Amino acid sequence: QVQLVESGGGLVQAGGSLRLSCVASGSIFSINAMAWYRQAPGKQRELVAVINSGGSVNYQDFVKGRFTISRDNAKNTVYLQMNSLKPEDTAVYYCKYEGVRGPFGWMNFWGKGTLVTVSS
User: Fold this and answer.
1) Which of 5, 55, 110, 118 is deepest in the core (most CB within 10 A)?
2) What was the pLDDT predicted at 1?
């Protein structure tokens, strides 16, 4: 089937930047939306940003102006450029591909996550 693998997480000081990537492998005909979620310790997973197949993007208020989501359809890859990071951005970041069309029909897929730690 399809597997999503995130990369780019790590430890960074407040005010710093990181760029996350999520690459999909497997037989994929098309992908509707690509999204980034995050889950901080003791909290529920929350949406960070989403980009649809047409390139329209939406951000949660807490990352507007600091994070940028983009996608490379030819590479089945989504990116999250994170600038001006704050300690409260510390979380495991997950990518989610929604409306993935393949030999399996239509499905949604999650990555396993990459840890981002922002020190004060």
Assistant:
1) 118
2) 84
